[in-house]
Amino acid sequence: MRILIVTHVVRKNDGQGRVNYEIVQAALAAGHTVTLLAAEAAAELVAHPRVRFARVATSRLPTRLVQYQMFALRCGAWVRAHRNEFDVVHVNGFIAWARSDVNAAHFVHDGWYRCGFYPFRLQHSFYHAYQVIYTWLNIACEKWAFRHTEVIVPVSQKVAAEVRALGAGAARMQVIHNGVDVDEFRPGACERARFGLPQVPFMLLFAGDLRMSRKNLDTVLHALVHTSADVHLAVAGILHNSPYPALVESLGLSARVHFTDMVMDMPALMRSVDAFVFPSRYEPMGLVLLEALSAGLPVITVRTAGGAEVIAPGSGVVLDDPNDAAALGAAIMRVASDTDYARSLGTRAREVAQNLSWQAMAERYLTVYEQVHARRAAQSLPPACASEPVKL
């Protein structure tokens, strides 16, 4: 097949970019040719003889709103000019003013806007007004994109429900969960000293953007107040402009909370802790949650986190309310105080992750591509001329 993938970046160290990276690798292994219409692509992909990289320049106009629209206009013009060169056109959400065959829905702005935890208000400030208008525009554009594609691939059942709420029929959807590198994220030797973490206490890990309230570190910190003093928390994320160090100090948790700042070797950090806590107020499908499962960590999360749906009974703890600090604290204490329970959760978590490898995910995408290609090939065949006389 001749495959076109339209996205912003295709590289390993980016969430959506990693998904597309693995799809490209699987497509090349299967003998297909791939064109990447993107702003950035990994050098090893660009160097491949069956990869064509059509670079889309990013706009220098002010605001992300205008920049994304310019990117979509440029991508749309390119796709329309080259459409006949491809068997399958794969886009990611709203990224191009052009029809597509496959649309991977990683994030639905309408779901974020209506989830109950959306933090911006139109009349609060200029910044808030800009964020609301930006979200409204994205909602309208995503509706258009989902109407103008053949197959929608939500990354979770949670996202699928949000896409359906925009009017897309379930018959056009095939959920494909994001993947994880089960070889890179695996149980192994503890390296706490490397990250400046104390050796003795039970160590939780929180990883995420420390500037975003939806990741919900505040509830984790309040939950820590409900736990014993030998439960500590490692926090991985960029500290610049984060309000959480001040909250830690105000809660009297300075001796028990350890900020590592940005960590490049997340697999090693996960091997150095005892459990992973992820009570995100809104998450379409968190890669970091899958990584924790693959690392064999007991995972404590909430239903508002999209990845929670992959947690089978006995492979993690899924709470109902992301803001219930007492319930979160109790769940943490049960894992921290019962070694056998924690070990069984981690073992089962690793088993769940084995079915969510990047290779398995990419092969599911290729199956969708093949289905789309087969339907198009069948539609292009001339109809059988039943009325023609039979020649004897």
TrEMBL record:
It holds the Pfam family Glycos_transf_1. InterPro entries: Glyco_trans_1, Glyco_trans_4-like_N. Residues 192-351 form the Glycosyl transferase family domain. The keyword Glycosyltransferase applies. One of its GO terms (molecular function) is glycosyltransferase activity. Keywords: Glycosyltransferase, Transferase. The keyword Amino-acid biosynthesis does not apply. Residues 14-183 form the Glycosyltransferase subfamily 4-like N-terminal domain. Its EC number is 2.4.-.-. PANTHER family: GLYCOSYLTRANSFERASE WBBK-RELATED. This is Glycosyltransferase family 4 protein.
